[in-house]
Amino acid sequence: MAYITDIRTLNAERIALLIDCCIQAYKAFDTTQASTCRHSAVSSPQGYELLDSWSGVDSIFGGDKTVESYGLVFRSTSAPWRYIFAFRGTDSALDMLDDCGANPQAFVPFAPTAKVPGEVRVETGFNDIYRSAAANAAPMQQQLFELIDRYQASSRPIDELLVTGHSLGAALSLLFTLDLSLSNTGLAAENINFASPRVGNEAFVDLIEQRVAQPVLRVQNIHDAVPHLPPEELGFRHTPAVYRIAFRSNDLLGKRDVLASHSSINYRAVLQCALQSPGGICSEPHLSIAEGIAPICSEPPQ
Predict the structure, then answer these.
(1) 7-249 belongs to which homologous superfamily?
(2) Which of 21, 102, 137, 139 has the most other CB atoms within 10 Å of its CB?
(3) For residue range 205-223, what is the model confidence (pLDDT) as tens digits?
C-alpha cells in the first residue's frame, strides 16, 4: 500500500488543527466524573469556539454500563461556518478492552431507510460504544445526529464539517463519517484521524470508499501498536490513505514503550516538527515535549 511521508504534500495546517482538537477532547474528560465534560479545561483553537459535547456508553459483555464524555464540537468564530467534531480516544481501562476486541458486527446507520450491504462488518466494541444507550444517556449515534440537525436549523448552518479522533476516537469518528454519508446525504464530512485501530472488514472499507466524498486520511506512527489491532488475520482492514510518521521513546524502553508511541501529545509534537522541517519530515534524535512528557526520538518512516 502506498503511503505519504512528506507533510508538505498534505493540508498540514488542517492536520495540526485537528490533532489539537483531539487533545482538547482528552482534556475535557474527567476520570473522577466520567460522564461530565470539563468545558473549563478546554482551550479552543484560535478562531474557534467550543460549542457542545456528547457522551457514549462503555460496557463489558453488555453489562456494567458506564456513561463517559466522548467528544467536543468546535465552530469557527466567523463565516463560513466550519464545524469540527473531535472524538476522545482511549482514556480508561474499559476503552482499552474495546480497542483490543475483535468480534465483527453488522453496522446499522442512523436513518432507518439507509442501505448497507449485508457483508459489511465492524468491530463490536467500537460499534457498541457508538450505538448503545443507558438509562440516563441516549446513544452516541443519536446525540450526534441531533447536534447536526440543531446546527442545520440554526442561523449558522454547517458550511464545512471536519471529523477527527485519536485512537478509539479515530474508530468512532470513522463510524460517524460513514453514517453521515448514508443517513444525511446533504452533508459531506472530511475525516482526518490519528492512531486509528482497524474498524471494519474489507466490505466496510469499500463502502467508505464508495460513499464518503472526501478520502479518509489516517495519520499513523509506524511504532504505534494500536493501528495493528484488531489483526488482519481476523478480516479487519484499514482505509487506504495514510500519512506515516515515526517516533518512539528516547529512554531504555524505546519501541517497547507502548504509551509513548501512542500518545496524542507525542503525535502533535512530531507533526509540529515536520511542519517546521524544510523536508517535511521530522528527524530529531531528542525531541522535547512541552507537557513534561519524557523526550522522544523521531526518524523518517520506512
Answers:
(1) Alpha/Beta hydrolase fold, catalytic domain (3.40.50.1820)
(2) 21
(3) 999 999 999 999 999 999 9
